[in-house]
Amino acid sequence: MMNKHFQSKGNFSGSSRSSVQETDSLRRIMGNSNLKQHIETAQKTGACQLRHLNLKEVPEELQRLSKNLRTVDLSDNKISVLPPWFVTFASLKNLTISNSKLVSLPEDFGQLKKLEVINLSNNSLTKLPKSFSNLTNLKTLTLSGNSFKTFPTEILVLQQLDVVDLSQNSITQLPADMSGLQAVELNLNQNQVSKMPASIAQCPRLKVLRLEENCLEITAFTADIMKHSKISLFAVEGNMFDMKMFHQVDGYDEYMERFTATKKKIN
Fold first, then answer.
1. What tens digit of pLDDT does each residue of 75-91 get?
2. Can you name the residues that pair with 119 across neighbouring β-strands?
3. What confidence tier does 265 reach under pLDDT thresholds 50, 70, 90?
4. Residues pairing with 150 in the sheet
5. What is the number of H-type helices and E-type strands within the chain?
6. DSSP secondary structure string, 208-248?
């Protein structure tokens, strides 16, 4: 009886494996069919959307569209690296690869000089390649939910940058010289930042600074930052101080003047 029991259990597991293999095979066939259709559409529109296709790498078929692709979305796949030829997409303006397994970008990623919007949220990136500083047209950069421990200094020279989202990383400190940052909004929520450099006050366009759920002490908000920066919205709840203390720091009144003036403009 014992032998029969094990034999029947073995048969069941074999049929399960067979069923799983058939399902995988079906997914591959359907995926390839979808892929062909998406690539044909991309050839006509210049926009390629390959979400939720269980891709482990960027399909080579995309390579022949390198001259006319303006938008690429490879989100919700299992892609860990981009192939070297990816940087030949000379017309690419909008790149989205969120919720994937990206661990790095090609060293010559900066060749994609027409990029204006990049969303690489929820991956495993720890740094940006040095060539990233060549993306002179970049306006919006989303790197939330990655594994950055240090602030990517490559973005400090980008003159067109408007919005940077580095929330939900493990950044512990900011560069001593932040004065080159051109962003209007910088999101560092849910990191481990414990200090703010004095140079934050010199950021020429920075109006919104989000630092919720970090490790900041109240002493981080110096009179110089509160009085002389252009920041009109500090989002700082969930740090190492009570918000009542924030309302009492030297320069809070000057900050509130900027806050109120900005609010009036919006309304």
1. 999 999 999 999 999 99
2. 96, 142
3. confident
4. 173
5. 4, 9
6. EEE--SS---GGGS-HHHHHHS---EEE--SSSS-HHHHTT
State the pLDDT confidence band at 267, using cuts at 50, 70 and 90.
Answer: low
Beta-bridge mates of residue 47? 71
pTM for the predicted model, two decimal places: 0.87
Containing 12, the helix (H) or strand (E) segment is helix 2-45
Q: Which residues pair with 208 in a beta bridge?
A: 185, 233
Q: Alpha-carbon distance 169 to 144, whole Å?
A: 7
Determine phi and psi for 42, rounding to 5 degrees: -60, -35
Residues in the chain: 267
- DSSP E strands in the chain: the ranges are 47-49, 71-73, 94-96, 117-119, 140-142, 163-165, 185-187, 208-210, 233-235
Q: How far is CA 191 from CA 10, 98, 146, 173, in A?
A: 50, 19, 11, 9
Alpha-carbon distance 106 to 116, whole Å? Answer: 18
When pLDDT is averaged across residues 5-14 and rounded to a whole number, the result is: 41
CA distances to 99, 118, 131, 201, 256 from 196, rounded to whole Å, are 30, 26, 26, 10, 19
Residue with tokens 């210049």: 46
CA pseudo-torsion sign 220, 226, 229, 230: positive
Distance from C-alpha of 250 to C-alpha of 252, rounded to nearest angstrom: 6
Q: Phi and psi (nearest 5°) for 5?
A: -60, -50
> Residue 223 in contact with residue 248, Cβ under 8 Å?
no
